[in-house]
Amino acid sequence: MTWQSVLRIKDVQPSDYATYECVALNELGSQRQQIELGRPSAPDPPLGLKVVNVSHDSATVAWEAGFDGGLPQVYQLRYYPMSGKRHLSYVKVQPPNATTFTVDKLAPDTAYSFDVRAYNKIGKSTYSMAVEGITMREFLKRVWLTMAQSVDYGSRLLPGPPARS
Length: 165
Prior knowledge:
Layout lengths: L18 E8 L2 E8 L10 E8 L4 E6 L9 E8 L7 E4 L7 E4 L7 E9 L11 E4 L3 H11 L2 E3 L2 E3 L7
Antiparallel strand pairs: 1-2, 3-4, 4-7, 5-6, 5-8, 8-9, 10-11
């Protein structure tokens, strides 16, 4: 036999932020469990950022949400090319609860650094650990498009038009 108890605090006030204790007693003994109702806070940084896909002009990154601070959170992705002029770019991730995002209009054959942070109405987290993603060369894009335009007639593959330089 199991029992369940629920503590609901409606219309939370500052004086409600405290440690609560639930005590269960029976003929076999007792059990105590404490739980803290903490104030909302800024979120923790996202976890496990990784590049999950790249093309010649885009990269898709994914991460896991950290603790949201008790409030809805949104994400901001920061990225920049790792060589040449280091121009930082920022993008607000849409939809707000997404944990995957594709950055487009990137340069071909270029290494980029990506990191992400969360924020809510209380504040913002630090950035996640950065990851590197390298876009494909433009040549690979042309080869792929040429192959995609090919037509298969039985066992004979007819190539599409040659790639333009």
